[in-house]
Structure formats: C-alpha cells, structure tokens
Amino acid sequence: METTRNESPLGRTIREAREAKGLSTRALGLRIGTTHSYIHKLEAGWFRTISPENIQALAAALDLDPQDLFALAGYRVPEGLPSFTGYLRTKYGEDLSDDAIARMSAYFEFERSQQLNRTEPTRHRPDPGEGRRP
C-alpha cells in the first residue's frame, strides 16, 4: 500500500461519518477488524489505495453508500453511480468547500423533487365525431 500525507475526500468522508456516529478510531477499527492506527492513517490520507474489502466494511459500519466510497477511492463502479455529493467530492475534491457541496446537493435534490412532482399535461382527446366535417 503506497502512502501519502494529504487528507483526501475519502479520508474526510470517513472521518466525518465516524464522528457523526460518535465512534472513536479504535471503535471503528474493532468493527471492521483493523487497528485504530489504520483508521487514523486512512482519514489522514496516508494511503493512496484501500482494499475493496475495507471499503465495503467501512461503508457497512458507517452506513455509507459503498459506491460513494469506491468512487472516492478512485475505483470505477460500473454497476452504479455515486450519489451527487460523492460525485462532487470525487470530481472537485478540495476545490469546493463542504458548505458549497452541501448547498449544491440541496439544490440538486430540490430540482429533482420538482421534476418528480411535475406531471405531463393532459392532452385533450376529441369526442367521437369532433373535428369532422358533416
């Protein structure tokens, strides 16, 4: 496993989800069968790669979409697409603040709900004989 020391969108996502669940690095490590130091290094961006097994375990332990984590880790996910938030973090990384991503995600969900609530206009069906010449 290659290492680096720059916090990545994957590491930030894992840290935020872990903290939101009130878990320590030790508790999360125990849940997925690894050490607290591995979790700490993963969150800090020491690793450029992470095994698919660890991604699946982290997703299950943190109630995250595995496809989002795979995308953030740089894996291609052919059977599905990441969420919009996961896509933005993967595509733009540090170029967008968490606040900007949250606003964009909220706007996207608003637009999506508007589309889902729209109905096709009812087409007028002529009555039998309507429009015919006598």
Task: Explain what you see.
- With 134 residues, the protein is an all-alpha fold.
- It has a single domain, classed as Orthogonal Bundle (434 Repressor (Amino-terminal Domain)).
- 57% of the residues lie in helices and 0% in strands.
- It is built from seven helices and no strands.
- The chain has helices spanning 9-20, 25-32, 36-44, 52-62, 66-72, 84-92, 98-117.
- α2 crosses α3 and α6 (84-92) packs antiparallel against α7 (98-117).
- It is elongated and about 50 Å long.
Largest sheet: none
Helicity level: 55-70%
> What CATH architecture would you give?
Orthogonal Bundle
Low-confidence stretches: none
Please give the CATH class: Mainly Alpha
Query: How many separate domains?
Result: 1
Distance between the termini: 84 Å
CATH topology group: 434 Repressor (Amino-terminal Domain)
What gyration radius follows from the Cα positions, in whole Å?
23 Å
Spell out the helices and strands N to C: HHHHHHH
- Overall SS class: mainly alpha
User: What is the count of β-strands?
Assistant: 0
Number of helices: 7
The percent range for strand residues is under 5%
CATH superfamily: lambda repressor-like DNA-binding domains
| Shape category | elongated
Overall pLDDT: 81
Key traits:
134 residues; mainly alpha
In short, what is this structure?
The chain is mainly alpha-helical and 134 residues long. The protein has seven helices and no strands.
SSE order and pairing:
Elements: H1 9-20, H2 25-32, H3 36-44, H4 52-62, H5 66-72, H6 84-92, H7 98-117
Helix pairs in contact: 2-3, 5-6, 6-7
